[in-house]
Design brief:
The protein has 224 residues and is α+β, with helices and mostly antiparallel strands. The protein has a single domain (4-199), classed as Glutaredoxin, CATH 3.40.30.10. Helices cover 50% and strands 10% of the residues. The chain has eleven helices and four strands; from the N terminus they run βααβαααααααββαα. It has helices spanning 15-21, 24-31, 42-49, 58-75, 90-99, 105-118, 126-135, 143-147, 150-165, 187-194, 202-210, and strands at 4-10, 33-39, 173-176, 179-182. Strand 3 (173-176) and strand 4 form a beta hairpin. The termini are far apart.
Length: 224
């Protein structure tokens, strides 16, 4: 069986992206997948879609922290969390953009996410990013200048725009042959899709989409 390429949209600000990344190598080996890493700006997705991040409201913030701790513990993953959250992830995202065609790109993404969520380090500090880069044997010389280059910024902007055009609204999201799977807890759904299951949802999906709204909450946007 040939290997399949799957797009993996992520932003290090998301703890769920971390939970997905720590499974990335194992999942790829088990399902013969090559990851096409797509660093994107989650905040830009929220702005464009009118959504709110899970820690941007008090009640969801506390639940989200509880949820990620539960998920990590059940998976045997050490989770500490960054010094501040949310935080500016642009430098880390640009670093992944810089190296995303390198064969160690997945290791870099895992390393950056682990430094943040697994070890409690601040990805807003270039020294933390450089430590991960150097630890993988990648070239960190002049890193600050290189990730500030216009072409790197354009790459991140372009990937974020392409994500929006593909209907991506959150991270982590996986895309295979036009089908999207949102959330680290949807990797099993992705695996089923790769096995040839969950393919023919068209008729049922179209039927559901054609159904009219029976009620509209005051202030809710019209999805049509």
């Amino acid at each position: 069986m040939s290997r399949r390429q799957v797009r993996f949209y992520l932003d290090f600000v998301s703890p769920y992206a971390f939970l997905a990344l720590v499974r990335a190598h194992e999942f790829a080996a088990a399902n013969r997948v090559d990851w096409d890493l797509r660093p994107i700006v989650y905040g830009a997705l929220l702005d464009a879609t009118g959504l709110v991040g899970p820690v941007e409201t008090t009640v969801k913030r506390r639940y989200t922290h509880r949820d990620i701790l539960r998920s990590a513990r059940l998976s045997g993953i050490r989770l500490v969390g960054p010094p501040e959250h949310p935080f500016r992830s642009l430098e880390a995202l640009r670093t992944l953009c810089l190296f995303r065609y390198d064969q160690r790109a997945v290791d870099l993404a895992v390393g950056l996410a682990t430094a943040c969520w697994g070890e409690g380090k601040a990805l807003t500090e270039l020294a933390v990013i450089e430590e991960v880069v150097v630890g993988l044997g990648l070239d960190a010389v002049g890193l600050a200048k290189r990730i500030s280059a216009d072409e790197v910024k354009r790459d991140l902007h372009g990937l974020t725009r392409e994500a929006l055009e593909s209907g991506i609204f959150g991270v982590p999201t996986f895309e295979y042959e036009g089908d999207i799977f949102w959330g680290h807890d949807r990797l099993d759904h992705l695996a089923a899709r790769l096995r040839g299951e969950l393919v023919d949802l068209g008729p049922e999906l179209d039927a559901m989409e054609r159904r009219p709204r029976g009620a509209t909450r005051k202030g809710a946007p019209d999805p049509h």
